[in-house]
């Protein structure tokens, strides 16, 4: 049987078609079954992208909710130089004015071989500038979101706020100590893109949004901080000291309302700052406190009933020989009461009070006031100061420590000691963070004032206040620290500096006090390191700064001036 | 015949419905995307403007503006301040008992009202 010629051709065609379809079927089987795993992964990789989204760092606010630091999302411009190279000069001419750079360097960047070039990393573009660049429809030019830290008040409270590094991590101040609360958590999205690289929103498979960081509310009040810094700056201008510090607090709660030191720095311009300027001297520098330390010995002696305010001590007309060395007073005094020892600031008188107390009691009060250990303020870089144990005291220590020698304290420790007297003898932990709040304003964590413990009795505090009020009186060492309308209690300190192991004619001039003395609301410490000129006493240098700051703070807080102070009943 | 027509119509409708629904999903996705972009942009602007506002409200900036505008603004002296109080029962007793001369001008006004019941009633009525 023979086939008709057309049937033979039909068979050939059918056979060919069958072969082709068999080959296609095999190929399909190969693609869909045999190579399924690899190919589907490749296809998914082509379609899908994982986009990381950075969580915004939380803000830092002052006690009244004013913004002290926040993170802004800005755009930086990037390029794929392999795409831009053919038109580099043309693109550079269009972009240079917006990126605030020169055409030549931009052309060079755009002509390279890299797939990723940051065109101008330091220029942060806002939305309007981005829209203008987008409208140019330049091929190979892309945008990248980046967070930058903004400090709207510039250098105000910079030592408290601190700053962040290039990776947006806190390095100093609250930025560092509250890092765990401030930092946001990154999120990610798994998206699919069309052939133009645009996301197909409907095919977004995973969307884990970023978590923004929490906001930190400080106890610092930006107006009080401004007042304090302004007055400190005036003193820096007038007395040209090497450094200066000012701290304002509420003695009853330990809240820090202002804290600043000079030299200072601007966290928005870190390139221009030195490590020295970045140091928060209020907590990281120690110095001999000088006569301000007399409050420790005298209050201890009053507390233990070893002396009364009226007890008399012979101040040896300014030269007291003890353990083979002569102790001097700045001015010669005869017989002084304990009260007079405080407001005349007699070194010999304070030494004799300490001798009556004995070294063990003196050391006990040094420790009870918190010297030689950190105050545990929520700021990094705090030091403990130096308070030698009794075993390391020599025969002179008992006469030198009461006048603030052989001991080193931070300005914050000294203020907290004065606050203890202002707060009926209860030492408070300094408090710089008030609360942690969410982005929506809900309070996550509320910090409460914390008492460290009682140091002296309220009665001893009353007696100390009686004496310390007279420090700003006409007979005291700081009449220039008197605040109109308020009764002030305070203590001056003029401590000689030590250089190469020797006391030199350079001084730390300090005034620390609180007001109103009858019901303390505000305490302030001012200290200047080596004021230039003939005037260097704490009462003359730091006292006026205290007064000026106190007057403005009282005005700002609406504190009602008191009636002329009534005669205080002296109690033996 | 009619049954097959109905089946065909149902299938066609289902197909068209499916395509319409898919289109709607993509269209809504695009709209969500646009709104997400607008929201993100608004949030960024908001942060930027919050920082700008904080800068403008900073004490240093306000002082500089006052100086630049030559406004001669100064804080009022204590004698220019009239302090107003919200008298409560305990405060009433204290104020009524306190000597008049020791009070500030504002306190004296309130104290006089307290001592004159007629004026106190008027004060409570906001008159």
Keywords for this structure?
heterodimer; A: 572 residues; seven-stranded mixed β-sheet; B: 127 residues; mainly alpha; 2 domains; 74% helix; elongated; disordered C terminus
Unreliable residue stretches of chain A: 564-572
Number of helices of chain B: 5
Spatial gap, N to C terminus of chain B: 92 Å
Helices of chain A, by number, come to 20
* Backbone shape of chain A: elongated
What is the CA–CA distance across the termini of chain A? Answer: 146 Å
CA radius of gyration of chain A is: 36 Å
Can you write the helix and strand succession of chain B as a string? HHHHH
Helix content of chain B: over 70%
Give the percentage of residues in beta strands of chain A.
15-25%
Question: What does the overall shape of chain B look like?
Answer: elongated
Total beta-strand segments of chain A: 25
A few lines on this structure:
The complex is a heterodimer of chains A (572) and B (127). Chain A is 35% helix and 23% strand.
Describe the protein.
The complex is a heterodimer of chains A (572) and B (127). Chain A is an alpha+beta fold and 572 residues long. In chain A, a hairpin with a 5-residue loop joins strand 6 and strand 7. Chain A is elongated and about 150 Å long. Chain B has helices at residues 2-57, 59-68, 89-97, 105-115, 117-124. Chain B is 74% helix and 0% strand. Chain B folds into 2 domains: 2-68; 84-125, no CATH class. Chain B has 5 helices and no strands. With 127 residues, chain B is mainly alpha-helical. The interface between A and B is medium-sized, with 31 and 29 residues.
